[in-house]
Amino acid sequence: TTPFAHALSLIDAAHADDPTLTTLADGTTLPYELHYARQMTRYLALHTGAVLAYDCHASTRATETATAPPSEALQLAVRAQHLRRWEVPRSSYPPTRAGYLSWRTGQGKRAGALASSYCATAGLAPAICARVQALVGKEGLRTGDAEAQILEDVACLVFLDDQFAGFVAGGGGAVEVDEEKAVRIVRKTWAKMGGRGRELAGGIAGVLEGKAGEVLARAL
């Protein structure tokens, strides 16, 4: 086992501890954060054109035109995006915009430190560990860091593809989100993405059904 594969297994083992389960299309259940991590890897592959051996969706894509895989640091940072997020719920911070931003920033720093520690345990070089921590913590996002932008794109795409419909429905339909608010959030998400991210987001808008699809189409 390589240090990279070991680090990946440690990250996935942490995701597997998530007590919240999600039901997949085939009826099976999976810890939500492990499902989320797999979706992040899926969109990293789509974004970069790479075929990643541990991507459970890779068999559905052709390999003839595959590009070289992204750096190990970016692959691990993408996989660790929400590392053990459930341990610090949003409700532990004030129910305000400032509270949300503090929670999100704190989660990024915490996940980055955890991911870096797993990478170190796996035997990866200190420079790679530090890079993983910086990427997960969104350092360099506003300074033209190409890998940081890819990670941001991927997170936005997973939100639109995997989470947006539930968000619009109020997380199961209990409290429906105001449509104008949903449109604003989509437009803010769009503004965060680079060109390739927006290209893929347009594809999501073309296939998303129901109210979420209507809101996404209107926003874009």
UniProtKB/TrEMBL annotation:
InterPro entries: DUF4202. It holds the Pfam family DUF4202. This is Uncharacterized protein.
